[in-house]
Amino acid sequence: MSVLVGKRAPVFWAPAVLDGNIIEDNFSLDNYLGKKYVVFFFYPADFTFVCPTELHAFQEKIAAFENRDTVVVACSTDSAVSHWKWLQTPKSDGGIQGVTYPIVADHALTISMAYDVLAGEYDTDSSDNPIFVGAPEAYRGLFLIDKAGIVRHQVVNDMPLGRSVDEVLRVIDALQFTEEHGEVCPADWHKGDKGLIATQDGIASYLSEK
């Protein structure tokens, strides 16, 4: 598994569904470069069980992300048409109707491979014919990308394990706190808590509450 923290987020141009209804042929995270923080998360597949709970959970707190100058972007290996159909399906029928943030279609698997979250890989059989081993779906990877396009946080869950949206918001708060104040955040830090500063003798001390 690649560690992308501290590196430029892999660049891509791919189809995506915007505003729950519009298919954009050439969408890129670079649209937000220099303007917004980005939470870019992968999920395994449309029309499944855990995935809609996550997509709805992010939508329910979309205002909290917007208040933090952050956009949310999802991605799976399904096609844009599959995304569009799922977005038209009511929540009561297992759909994600009402989700407004972009959903990227990684049907060629190249984005999942670039972010190293693909559950399978290409190989060759005994006759040197190309084959795909494993599942052509993404693990539940999530990447927090700053305004300069640098990955500052990543986490990857196995497919059965849903993520915590509140934890994503906490990490955004921590990143923005360190950028603003130049301090570091101790374990279980939350917005409003004290930060830490390292002294020249190597002793970390608490600062006043921000």
Describe this structure in words.
The chain is of the alpha+beta class and 210 residues long. It folds into two domains: 14-163, Glutaredoxin; 164-210, Antioxidant, Horf6, Chain A, domain2 (Antioxidant, Horf6, Chain A, domain 2, 2-Layer Sandwich). It contains five helices and eleven strands. It has helices at 50-60, 62-66, 80-87, 110-114, 165-181, and strands at residues 14-18, 22-27, 37-42, 70-76, 103-105, 121-124, 130-133, 140-145, 151-157, 196-198, 204-206. The strands form three sheets. Strands 2-1-5-4-3-8-9 form a seven-stranded mixed β-sheet. It is globular and about 60 Å long. The model has no long low-confidence stretch (mean pLDDT 93).
What keyword list fits this structure?
Peroxiredoxin, Glutaredoxin, about 210 residues, Thioredoxin-like_sf, two-stranded antiparallel sheet, 2 domains, alpha+beta, Antioxidant, Horf6, Chain A, domain 2, seven-stranded mixed β-sheet, EC 1.11.1.15
Taking the sheet with the most strands, its summary is: 7 strands, mixed
Strand order of the largest sheet: 2-1-5-4-3-8-9
End-to-end distance: 36 Å
Count of discrete alpha- or pi-helical segments spanning 4 or more residues: 5
Taking all Cα atoms into account, the compactness measure Rg is 19 Å
Fold topology:
Layout: E1 14-18, E2 22-27, E3 37-42, H1 50-60, H2 62-66, E4 70-76, H3 80-87, E5 103-105, H4 110-114, E6 121-124, E7 130-133, E8 140-145, E9 151-157, H5 165-181, E10 196-198, E11 204-206
Parallel strand pairs: 3-4, 4-5
Antiparallel strand pairs: 1-2, 1-5, 3-8, 6-7, 8-9, 10-11
